TrEMBL record:
<dbReference type="InterPro" id="IPR012302">
    <property type="entry name" value="Malic_NAD-bd"/>
</dbReference>
<feature type="binding site">
    <location>
        <position position="171"/>
    </location>
    <ligand>
        <name>a divalent metal cation</name>
    </ligand>
</feature>
<dbReference type="InterPro" id="IPR046346">
    <property type="entry name" value="Aminoacid_DH-like_N_sf"/>
</dbReference>
<keyword id="KW-0479">Metal-binding</keyword>
<protein>
    <recommendedName>
        <fullName>Malic enzyme</fullName>
    </recommendedName>
</protein>
<comment type="similarity">
    <text>Belongs to the malic enzymes family.</text>
</comment>
<feature type="binding site">
    <location>
        <position position="312"/>
    </location>
    <ligand>
        <name>(S)-malate</name>
    </ligand>
</feature>
<feature type="binding site">
    <location>
        <position position="147"/>
    </location>
    <ligand>
        <name>a divalent metal cation</name>
    </ligand>
</feature>
<dbReference type="GO" id="GO:0046872">
    <property type="term" value="F:metal ion binding"/>
</dbReference>
<keyword id="KW-0560">Oxidoreductase</keyword>
<feature type="domain" description="Malic enzyme NAD-binding">
    <location>
        <begin position="172"/>
        <end position="355"/>
    </location>
</feature>
<feature type="active site" description="Proton donor">
    <location>
        <position position="4"/>
    </location>
</feature>
<dbReference type="GO" id="GO:0006108">
    <property type="term" value="P:malate metabolic process"/>
</dbReference>
<dbReference type="GO" id="GO:0051287">
    <property type="term" value="F:NAD binding"/>
</dbReference>
<dbReference type="InterPro" id="IPR001891">
    <property type="entry name" value="Malic_OxRdtase"/>
</dbReference>
<feature type="active site" description="Proton acceptor">
    <location>
        <position position="75"/>
    </location>
</feature>
<dbReference type="InterPro" id="IPR012301">
    <property type="entry name" value="Malic_N_dom"/>
</dbReference>
Length: 355
């Protein structure tokens, strides 16, 4: 919690006014045509890991532009502290293509370009030059981690570079691996296999669809069934309600595999009552969306409801550990994205997981 969530979220929001010295490398639209030169200005030559963001989707806080640098810096602290990668081999990078955050554009301490975000061809050309320069300067083996890009760019970038560069998207793939580990651990408490359970997600962005896909992949591996047969166990909701087959034509490509046959459902409570999920997973970025009604409905349906409120930072968590435990009389198997303190209930100490 000191080097990462929730502290890092506040640090990013205030980055301009607490700025003392550069902690990473900034590449902006103004560097177009000379990104390789900019990379060569970094004093360390043998880089193993790059964490790069464009600041458009920082945690659940949205577009923080250049101030998103706190995220690559914080993530790379974890590479060192937990992964043992030497600090000099880590390179935090923020690509500054502007920001659509009016508050920052009008903030005298904002450190980035004061313009609306570049999009389309201008954006993708810059990213292409960046990815080419990374490989030229650091070789084939440098790992580039995409972090906190907005949905529309995140899926495109991963698809475009996964075959030519050593890349992964933390929000689509990194989050998914940790959450799947959490669900496998939860099975030890609630019983059954992955395929025995029904999953309902609130939130169908990078995290939601990424986790859902990895659950389906693991289910497919365990059962020997094709992944297409495993996906119908997993349901997703977005801001327009349950993702169902009748909405298929209007859905973004990454949501289409999750459009199953079902009548439209508008609210989370209705979805819980209709689908009877055993596992409820929040990736909505909106705090308080697992209301008392929803959690109590999960508790009524399940002896041990699995409730993962994963949105960051803590203020955006779908519910708190205390709420999940209190509303289910201590029966919930709970994990969150940011840490919560343990909860004492009826003389028992309940320790929430972090996933």
């Amino acid at each position: 919690p000191v080097v990462y969530t929730p502290t890092v979220g506040e640090a990013c929001q205030k980055y301009g006014s607490i700025y003392r010295r550069p902690q990473g490398l900034y590449i902006s639209l103004k560097d177009k045509g000379k990104i390789l030169e900019v990379l060569k200005n970094w004093p360390e030559r043998s880089i193993q890991v790059i964490v790069v963001t464009d600041g458009e989707c920082i945690l659940g806080l949205g577009d923080l532009g250049c101030q998103g640098m706190g995220i690559p810096v914080g993530k790379l602290s974890l590479y060192t502290a937990l992964g043992g990668v030497r600090p000099s081999a880590c390179l935090p990078i923020t690509i500054d293509v502007g920001t659509n955050n009016e508050t920052l554009l009008n903030d005298e301490f904002y450190i980035g370009l004061r313009q609306k975000r570049a999009t389309g061809e201008e954006y993708h050309k810059l990213l292409e030059e960046f990815m080419t320069a990374v490989k030229q300067n650091y070789g084939e083996k440098v790992l580039t981690q995409f972090e906190d890009f907005a949905n529309h760019n995140a899926f495109d970038l991963l698809e475009k570079y996964r075959d030519s560069h050593l890349v992964f998207n933390d929000d689509i793939q990194g989050t998914a691996s940790v959450v799947l580990a959490g669900l496998l651990a939860a099975l030890k408490v609630v019983g059954g296999t992955l395929a025995d359970h029904t999953y309902l997600f609130l939130g169908a962005g990078e995290a939601g669809t990424g986790i859902a896909e990895l659950i389906a992949l693991e289910m497919s591996k365990q059962t020997g069934s094709p992944i297409e047969e495993c996906r119908p166990k997993i349901w997703l909701m977005d801001s327009k309600g349950l993702i169902v087959a009748s909405r298929k034509d209007s859905l973004q490509a990454f949501k289409k595999p999750w459009a199953h046959e079902h009548e439209p459902v508008a609210t989370l409570l209705e979805a819980v009552e209709s689908l009877k999920p055993t596992m409820l997973i929040g990736t909505s970025g909106k705090g308080g969306t697992f209301t008392k009604d929803v959690v109590e409905a999960m508790g009524a349906l399940n002896e041990k409801p699995v409730i993962f409120a994963l949105s960051n930072p803590t203020s955006h968590s779908e519910c708190t550990a205390e709420q999940a435990y209190t509303w289910t009389q201590g029966r919930a198997v709970f994990a969150s994205g940011s840490p919560f303190h343990s909860v004492e209930l009826d003389g028992k100490v309940l320790v929430p997981g972090q996933s």
